[in-house]
Amino acid sequence: LVAVANPLQAAEKVYRLKMAETWPSNFPIFGDAPRNMAAMADKMSNGRLKITIDSKNKHKAPFGIFDMVRSGQYDLGHSASYYWKGKVPNTLFFTTMPFGMTAPEQYGWFYHGGGMELMNKVYDKYNLLSFPGGNTGNQMGGWFQKEVKSLDDLQGLKMRIPGFAGEVLAKLGAKPTNIPAGELYTALERRTIDALEWVGPSLDLRMGFHKIAPYYYTGWHEPATELQFLVNKRTWKKLPEDLQEVLRVAMRTAAYDMYIQSYHASGENLAKILTEYPDIQVKSFPADVVQAMREANQSLLAEKAAADPLAGEILKSQAAYLKQARLWTDISDKAYLNSLSTAK
Amino acid sequence: MIGIVMFFVALAILLIGFPVAFTFGGVALAFGVWAEGPDMFAFMPFRIQSIMENVVLMAVPLFIFMGIVLQKTRLAEQLLESMGKLFGGVRGGLAISTVLVGALLAASTGVVGASVVAMGLISLPVMLKYNYDKSLACGTICASGTLGQIIPPSIILIILGDVLGIPVGDLFQAAVGPGLMLIGIYVVYILVYTWLKPEAAPALPLDEDISHKRQQYLRALKAIVPPLALILIVLGSIFAGIATPTESSALGGVGALVLAAAYRQFSWKMVYESALETVKVTAMVFAILLGATAFSMAFTYTGGDYIVEEVLSDLPGGATGFLILSMVAILVLGFFIDFVEISFIIVPILAPAAEALGIAPVWFAILIAMNLQTSFLTPPFGFSLFYLKGVAPPQVRTVDIYRGVMPFILMQVAVVVSILLFPSFYGLS
Amino acid sequence: MLLRLEKLINHFSDVLGKLAALLFVLMLFNVFIDVVMRYVFNDVSIGMQELEWHLFAAMFMLAVPYTLRTGGHVRVDLIYERLGLRRKALIDLLGCLLLLLPFSLLVGWYGVGFALEAWELGETSGDPGGLSQRWIIKAVIPLTFFAIALSGIGMMLKSINILRGHHQECDYQPPQH
Ligand code: NA
Ligand code: NA
Questions:
Q1: 3 state DSSP class of A16
Q2: What are the angstrom distances between the C-alpha of A197 and each of A98, A211, A284, B124?
Q3: Among A195, B16, B253, C104, which is least packed, fewest CB within 10 Å?
Q4: Do residue A86 and residue C43 have CB atoms under 8 angstroms apart?
Q5: Tally of CB atoms within 10 A around C49
């Protein structure tokens, strides 16, 4: 590039990149992450790296981000890795897994436990780079019309729960059901479906499910949903090294910022839901249900590991990392909270 | 700038009379390729796919099919005629029945294309048969078909809930009052208009073989019950949790076939012919959506969204001034771009200002929804007008439709103004 | 010769229309069965639910060229309806040449790459029990747009045949419903 011939001139050159996000414009928290990232990149580069963001309502292809960034129609994307499961099955593992790592554990895996390397091993073939793009924290298990007291209550339970988690529940006799997002409220209210999962208090409040369903279950299937920045590899290579670093740091910082923002918004909104609707019962699934879900999850993962060597490698790496990190989680955060609750 | 020039070029070419869908597409192509190169059209398959995957739109062919079956079996005609006769000597009975049936359909779908086309199929032929004024008939159908937009469930309320971060249930509840007000005003208008201009909507002749009034009513009721029950079953299936609103339209389609069988009019030939007509009308509706998505793509990707943003981002005035200006802006934009674009591009720009001015979000959303409903009726690009034209018999001309919707547009504007001035009357303040 | 070519193209569009009608009936019963299965038998099949929109999408797409053939696409006829047959034919000829053909061919062209990508990736549904072979429904996009182009050529031939004095006035009646 010109950079070699004339460093001064190269320093002045402005790079304009276009980014597509899966979310509609003004979508809180999820949509703040790419905007925050773009603003930081602009400032850190002294205006040399300009990123414009097109929302779902402009490009109309929330689940076309993978293809559009891959082909270069957009330079960057903001989405979530598990959306590409139907195109590239191994992308499933880089968002969150049922009964998997919590957000700090998973960040540890990405940056220090080989996660980034494995993720880019998956994306490399498709002319893409993938970076963590912000975490929602632990997602709630969903809104239920009836209490789940035993495994029997999962039999024939009609629940909107897409993707791999739906597969786990289906193994236990539940009936994952597709309902368009716009009709979810009516469907749950009229009991066309018995339950649904969305995100957590941070985004559930605006959907209003607390007004129509009495039980709010704690999470199991998305303990640390990590969004994703996708970068077209050709675009990345065209950037001078300093701007690559600006972009990398901006993405990493924006991801962390979103995790904190989610945490804050969840606390704030949960308080709001519980003051406005004190009758909402926050529940956890009974131990035998959790146990059965874990076993179903294990056997499904074993199938995936057996079917594809790379999937096996990723799952093995995650399991090993989780084992080591959880030791510490247990005697740090968990023990701390436990000691508080037993001390009263 | 390109977006605005493109709009006027499209308008000019539309007037020549080439099909609307391909005029939108072709003009979008010319301007898009000229400004950005052909690669912009690599986005088209994605946009088309988002229409293909939009299952809520399945209500369009399903309702059209129900309408066609009811029309072919003459059950719709009997329904409207009998309802009309129940009005006795009161003129405009057919038009009022159309508004009421339209309101019922509106309560089971949120897709305007579905209810306008179904109402066009069901009631336009009947009104024309009884020598209704063409403009009155067309205006009534477009307006009552478009009620689907404000009477819950409604796509626009779902989208606005999403954009403004309001639970969709709150919006559905808030929209009931304004929706009923619209229905009431339409009915009053039809009564007054036909009283002033009797020849526009003759009262239906009573059956001559029966002299007794009571028997007249009984016979009419007998004809009303089956098709009305069908529509109520569609509605009831949503409320009972049997089906989602979209699925309920399939119950309507199958139910229409069952009714046909009950009246000994069922045959596979009839099903096939109805299906063939259904796909033809459906393709007419969706081709417009395909052309329009190309048009809005060329509009936004050549910078149209930024122009709109600039104009709107600093509207002057306090709360009332802001509300009036933003309503006028949305009304004017409604002539140019469709409601989805407006909700996603315009509303997010206006929302922060509304919030800062302390305007109640639900009130704001209902105002916008009513306003956007109007955009379906405003010439030249009002989609309801295209849809009705697509199913109208040849003697109904575009100009009849344009003329017919004018008073209804004025009534809608009046209701928007009343919501703006007296939110407490609608429980919105 | 031109007349025969026009007939051949019309025939192709008609076949697509019949296919779309069949897909519609399948879709109607598909949705109905899904509702009955869920409500009465408490059973849900994601595959069947996905089949709904596959049938729906293929139905309305493939019907577009058919509707073009039958003259069912809506026009603003403020001026058009007052024109004579030859002028109408001229408008259709030029409209197809300048608007319809470039649009449908370009979208069709990009649609090929779109469908091919799904084919190469072996794209499937991301949901458990969903349908595989996504390339089929994606291939409907280029298929439809090339068929629209072909149907448009049929419309042009018809216009040319009218300009050469081969058609009767009644050909330009809008469809009845
Ligand atoms: Na979720
Ligand atoms: Na509605």
A1: strand
A2: 13, 15, 14, 45
A3: B16
A4: no
A5: 22
CB C152 within 8 A of CB C105: no
Phi and psi based region of residue B63 (left: phi greater than 0; alpha: psi -120 to 50; beta: remaining): alpha
Q: Do C95 and B272 touch (CB under 8 A)?
A: no
The partner residue sitting opposite C128, judged by closest CB among A156, A176, A192, is A176
Beta-bridge partners for A215: A144, A281
Over the range A7-25, which residues count as b (16 or more CB within 10 Å of their CB) and which as e?
eeeeeeeebebbbbbbbbb
Query: Count H helices, E strands: chain B?
Result: 20, 0
DSSP label of B200: G
Which residues of chain B are within 8 Å of residue A203 when distances are taken between CB atoms? none
Domain-wise residue ranges, chain C: 2-164
The half-sphere exposure of A152 on its side-chain side, counting CA atoms within 13 A, is 1
**Do the chains contact at A163 and C50, CB–CB below 8 Å?**
no
- Mapped onto helix, strand or coil, the DSSP state of residue A183 is helix
ipTM (interface pTM): 0.89
Q: How many CB atoms lie within 10 A of CB A212?
A: 17
Ligand nearest to the CA of B152: 2
| 3-state SS class at A72 | coil
Q: What residues contact B188, with CB distance under 8 A and at least 6 apart?
A: none
Considering only alpha carbons, which residue of chain A is nearest residue C115?
Answer: A67
Q: Cα(B2)–Cα(C168) distance, rounded to whole angstroms? A: 42
Q: Which amino acid is at B304?
A: G
Chain B positions touching C15 (Cβ under 8 A) are none
Q: Match 């090993």 to its residue by tokens.
A: A320
Using DSSP, state whether C124 is helix, strand or coil.
coil
Instruction: With CB atoms and an 8 Å threshold, state whether B155 touches A190.
Output: no
Q: Is B52 on the interface with A (CB under 8 A)?
A: no
- CA dist B200 and B135 (Å) reads 9
Burial of C1 (0-12, 13-18, 19+ CB in 10 A): exposed
Q: Which of A294, A341, A285, A5 is nearest to A146 (CA)?
A: A285
Inter-chain CB proximity C42 and A87 less than 8 Å: no
Question: Under an 8 A CB cutoff, do A60 and B170 touch?
Answer: no
Cβ proximity of C40 and C34 under 8 Å? no
Q: How far is A240 from chain B (nearest CA, A)?
A: 26
Neighbours of chain B (3+ CB pairs under 8 A): A, C
Helices C2-41, C46-69: axis angle to 10 degrees equals 150
pLDDT by position in tens, chain B (length 429): 787 888 889 888 988 889 989 999 999 999 999 988 899 999 999 999 989 988 888 888 998 898 889 888 888 888 888 888 887 777 888 899 999 988 888 887 777 778 888 889 888 998 999 889 999 999 999 999 888 888 887 878 888 887 787 877 788 889 989 999 999 999 999 999 998 988 888 877 766 666 677 777 787 788 888 888 888 888 888 888 888 888 888 998 999 999 899 888 899 999 999 999 999 989 988 998 899 889 888 988 888 777 777 777 667 777 888 888 888 888 877 766 667 777 777 787 788 778 778 888 899 999 999 988 888 888 877 888 988 988 898 889 889 999 999 999 999 999 999 998 888 888 777
Residues 129-168 of C with CB under 8 A from B: 137-138, 140-141, 152
Ligand closest in space to the Cα of A186: 2
**Which phi-psi region, left, alpha or beta, contains residue A284 (left: φ > 0; alpha: ψ -120 to 50)?**
beta
Distance of alpha carbon B339 from alpha carbon B270, whole angstroms? 36
Alpha helices in A135-240 (DSSP H): 163-171, 184-189, 201-204, 233-238
Determine the distance in angstroms separating the CA of C26 from the nearest CA of chain B, rounded to an integer: 10
